[in-house]
Design brief:
Photosynthetic Reaction Center, Chain H, domain 2; about 15% helix; alpha+beta; eight-stranded mixed sheet; about 40% strand; 2 domains; about 220 residues; SH3 type barrels
C-alpha cells in the first residue's frame, strides 16, 4: 500500500531517465467509483509553460522513488494521449468537458461524477442526523490510483482532530449545495479513530477503522 494525501501529491514530479517532465498540479476523481481518473500535469521550462491532462491507467506501470514518479520512457507519456489545457484558463475542467466525450463527464441534475479535488476540499460532511465535519484531504492509494479514505476534520481550523471515512459510506456528492452525504450517524464520524498523519495510516489503524464503522453501536 502506498498512500499519499492530495496535498502531498501536488508536489510530486514525474521523471523520465532522471529528467523532470512535469509536476502534478491537479487531480480529477470519479466520485461514483472514488478513483483518480486524470492528472493535470504542469510542464514548465525557461521559455513557456503548458498543462497536459493524462489518464491514470497510463500511470500504473511506474516506479515511486523518494516522492518522485519515474516513467519507463517518454513514449509512455506520449501514449497517454494528453489533452492540452490553456494555461490562461481559470477553470481547466470546463475545457476538459468540451474536448472529451467520456461518460464520466456527464452530470445528472445537481450531481456530477467528475470532480477537481481542490474544489471538493472544504465540503461539509452531511451525516444522516446532521453535519459532522469538513473534508480536508483525500488519501490516495497510488498502486491503483483510488481514493482510500476521506480525511475529515470537525471544523476547518488546522488544529482540530482528523478522522477517516471510507468512500463506501458516501451516498452522494451534491455539487449544487456543496455537500458530501454519507450513510453514517454523526457519532460514528466523531468517535472514529484519530488520524495524526498520512504516514499514520497503518494496517493496525485500518483494522480499527473497519471495526469502528462495522460496530453495532452506530447502526440505527
Amino acid at each position: 500500500m502506498m498512500l499519499y494525501s492530495t496535498r502531498k501529491l501536488k508536489k510530486i514530479a514525474l521523471y523520465v531517465s532522471d529528467e523532470e517532465v512535469g509536476r502534478i498540479e491537479r487531480l480529477f476523481i470519479d466520485t461514483a467509483k472514488w478513483d483518480v481518473r486524470y492528472l493535470l500535469l504542469l510542464k514548465s521550462d525557461l521559455i513557456s509553460s503548458r498543462r497536459l491532462l493524462i489518464t491514470t491507467p497510463s500511470m500504473k506501470d511506474v516506479t515511486f522513488i523518494k516522492n518522485k514518479i519515474h516513467l519507463r520512457s517518454q513514449d509512455q507519456l506520449a501514449r497517454a494521449t494528453p489533452i492540452e489545457v490553456s494555461i490562461e484558463k481559470s477553470h481547466p475542467e470546463d475545457l476538459i468537458q468540451v474536448k472529451t466525450n467520456l461518460p464520466v463527464f456527464k452530470s445528472q441534475g445537481t450531481y456530477s461524477t467528475l470532480m477537481d479535488t481542490e474544489k471538493l476540499k472544504g465540503y461539509p460532511i452531511r451525516a444522516d442526523d446532521g453535519t459532522r465535519g469538513f473534508l480536508t484531504e483525500l488519501a490516495i492509494d497510488l498502486v491503483g490510483w483510488s481514493v482510500r479514505y476521506l480525511i475529515v476534520k470537525k471544523n476547518k481550523w488546522q488544529f482540530w482532530r482528523k478522522t477517516l471515512v471510507p468512500p463506501l459510506w458516501v451516498d452522494s456528492v451534491n455539487t449544487s449545495t456543496g455537500n458530501i452525504n454519507v450513510n453514517l450517524a454523526e457519532r460514528a464520524i466523531e468517535k472514529a479513530p484519530e488520524l495524526n498523519s498520512i504516514a499514520g495510516i497503518t494496517p493496525r489503524l485500518e483494522r480499527r477503522v473497519v471495526f469502528h464503522y462495522g460496530s453495532d453501536k452506530f447502526k440505527h
